Hints:
Rossmann fold; alpha+beta
Amino acid sequence: MRDILPPDSARWRRFQSVFAGVVESAGYGEIMPPLMEDLGVFQRIGDATDVVTKEMYDFDDKGGRHVALRPEQTASVCRAYAQHRPATPWKVFYAGPNFRYEKPQRGRYRQFDQVGIEVLGADDPYLDVEVISLGWEFYEKLGLERVQLLLNSLGEPEDRARYVDALEIYFRANLDGLTEQSRITLDKNPLRVLDSKREFDAELIAYAPRIAEFYSPDAAAHFDAVQQGLDDLAIPYTIDTKLVRGLDYYRHTTFEFVGLTLDSAQNALGGGGRYDGLVESLGGPPTPGIGFALGLDRTLLACDDEGVFAAPNTDVDVFVVDSTGGRQALRITAELRNAGLVCDRAFENRSMKSQMKAADRSGAAVAIIIGSNELDAGTVVVRPLRGAVDVNKQREVPRRDLISAVTKAVLLAVKEATA
Ligand code: HAM
């Protein structure tokens, strides 16, 4: 688990706020589920998934309850829906950390942040399109261009069940063509064999039965409408019949956003789909649901690769240098901050030289300097810090003109810097 330090932390916060802007404009409200819940909530993700069997941080609390840190937030949102019974469609978004005991590597961590949305209570293919399009719009807002949308449908639960049977029969008849690892997967969940990226498995998987052959008329019509809707919005997608996703609760539409600049083992920037049975399994009424979650880490790696969405500039506007003991700096910084300027200062009554160095390091456009002469005269010195250092450019102004003089100097410095 990692510390996220400045200036990366500012980039994280902006990531979340850009996401909130996109989804709030479509009527989604923020939900903040707890970090920890009864283990049973997360077991609904699926007994056969790695997330549940291997990666959960679960333990008994002091009251003897078996709890777990959340490995994702979809199950919590469904639990909250079953508990609070809000009006439908219930459109919510979330942002925050999740915990999975995975092997840490680039783009894969034990504590990782996601942003996501979920909609409960509407079974409309155009809702699937809305959800997918909001993910797409968010990537566009970040400036990412090398993102591919993979799309599939797992059909109705009965379609999926018939497909799993057919897959099992096919793979069992051809065990020689499967690696040892895939044979173990086959015993647990034949669908996940399709996920194998091992070369030896590739040929057998290529000729495996296709899910599309098992769709009921309703499932086929739903999937057709989703594709038409995406076409209407000019969102490009690739049908990937092998896209089964790692969690068991999916049915009908599933999708994944792939970062084309990333290594294939860790290139899923985000994914989601329909999970029409999840609320019911958590004790609520039968309720359709759909959503996605996008991983912050991998998305930022993709941003680095494409040279977009850099860390925001966290430089201050003004740095106050006070050689009279520090009390003047206290008052001046308070005044400047009240006027809306971003402002810092030195402490511990350092030498003038050391304070000026700190001013340079802060990235400030302007320094306000106050020494005993200025204090006696009721003035301050305003010195531009950017560009060629030129002491002649500094001005001594009456203390009462502080705000207007500083504001002008900062604006001028910004203008010169962008010219
Ligand atoms: P997921 O595919 O498990 O889906 O995770 C979504 C995204 O979270 C991944 O594509 C990846 O970017 C990121 N992610 C997952 N695990 C890690 C990790 N260990 N380190 C860094 N990033 C990671 C879900 O979580 C579902 N709840 C999505 C969903 C919402 N389906 C319906 N609604």
